[in-house]
Amino acid sequence: MSVQNGINGWAGTVLRVNLTTGSVTREDTLPKYKPYIGGMGIGYKVIWDEVPLDTEPFSEEAKVVFSVGPLTGSGVPCSGRTTITLLSNWSRGKSIVDAHMGGHIAHSIKYAGYDAIIIEGKASKPVYLKIEDDKVSLEDASHVWGTGTFNTNKVLSAECGAEFDVASIGPAGENLVSMSCMITSFGNSGGAGVGGALGAKNLKAIAIRGTGAVKIADPVEHKNLCDYMIRDLVGGNNNHNVPSRPQSWAEYTSTVKNRWQGGPGVMWGAAPDGAIDTGEQPSGQIAVAAYRATKGVFDYGDVVQQYIVKSGGCASCPVRCYSEYNVDILAEYDLPTLVSNTCVPAGSGPTSFYLKDAMHDFKDEGDSKIVLGLHGAYVMDDLGLWENYNNLGREFAWCLKNGVFEKMLPKEEFDSIPWHLMEEGDPRWLDDIMGRIARKEGEISRIGEGSYFFYKAWGLDDASKNEWGVNMYDMIGGNNNVTYNGYPKHHSSEDGWQSGLLYNVMYNRDCMVHVLTNFVRSGSPFNEVIKPVLESYFGEGCVDAPKAYTPINENKVKLAKWCFLQKQWQDSATLCDWMYPMTLSSSPARKYVGDIDLDAKYMTAVTGEEWTMDDILFSAERISNMLRGITAISFKIHENMDNLRKTHDAVPAWVFDKDPDVPAFSEGTDKMDREDWEKSLTMFYEAMGWNVDTGIPTRETLEKFDLGDMADKLEELGLI
Question: What does residue 343 show for φ and ψ, rounded to 5 degrees?
Answer without folding.
Answer: 65, -150
